[in-house]
Amino acid sequence: MEFRLDIEDYINETDYQWDGNNETVCHNLLIISRLYPPDLAVPLYGYAMPFLFVTTAITNLLVVAVLWQRHMRSPTNAILLAMALADTFTVCFPEPYFFYMYALNNYKEPLYPTAACYTWLFFHETIPNLFHTASIWLTVMLAGQRYIYVCHAPLARTWCTIFRVHVAIAVIFSLALFHQMPRFLDTVYDPVQVVWDEGEQAGHCVDACHVRYADWVQIVSLDIYYSIYFWFRVLFVHMGPCTILVVLNGLLFNAMRNAQKRRAQLLQENRKSECKKLRDSNSTTIMLICVIMVFLVTEIPLAIITLLHIIQTQWNIVIINYRLLYYYLIYSNSFIIFSYPVNFAIYCGMSRQFRETFRELFVRGSAFTRPPDGDSSRYSMVNGPRTCVTES
What we know:
Shape: globular
Largest sheet: 2 strands, antiparallel
Low-confidence stretches: 2-27, 369-392
Strand order of the largest sheet: 1-2
Order of helices and strands: HEEHHHHHHEEHHHHH
Helix content: 55-70%
Strand content: 5-15%
Distance between the termini: 36 Å
């Protein structure tokens, strides 16, 4: 969800302090107040984010509870369930630290001990990036699966089985973890003591975390390491998936328009049974197109921000001030988290099956059992496994 700048940009500017021998030393300290503009980070990350976190956690857990029901299990719903879990983990890891730092006003002083510094790095950046990367490719998988259902229906029985979907989900999470593994190991925090010159601790010797690159990163070369990481991320985590989703969304929209024409023809021929199946399939397609569109609206700005950072870093071309870039980054992250509960609204608004299961599970107290196979009012068969949802 977030990207990390080069270490000279990521940590605060150099602080010159005096050691015990009265010699000037240079400490690159981890100071949260200098990572993001406090005037924006405090209200958004400190006060607005907890409400977004609670809303996202509740809505996504409701989605998981509904999709986990036996009669709701299908290849498409398996992907939606994995997406809901990935989005929830993307938010739940950084939020406790954001609340502690910004809502409780602990962001102004150096972070310490080193365990807290590592936890901050992992919880606010590395782990959220892992789950967000998985969520991105799960969305691509969702669009690809729907494209097979709609445009190449005979292949659905082979490629869109529950087993293959579960394997693909496991592969996506494994590759996302592999992609982020270097970020768990590329930074080292060493304990230091400095004379602090701000706030209540001004003039006192305080403990802090000195930030440096790991030895293996310096051996590989900083330029090579960060170039590979960020170019890989912008191509295969941001721009690539967004491009694929735009293409698949266009194909799905075109297929849906053709299906609407076919449905009108079936209505004229009074073939109501086939018309109903086609309507159910179109409802599922429309819902998934909406989910993908929400994803694209939130992800494309983050992809652009990451690309601008790479261009400025690699070619020293100043396109936008880094402080302004951080403002955009905070807005983009907040917008992404705000979009997560929107999926719940889409499911409820466009899926009759989801609404009925939700109502039976949480309003009446128990989920209904799966109806006989002959009852197709709640289930849609699209030349293969049952699809996600239907709508009348």
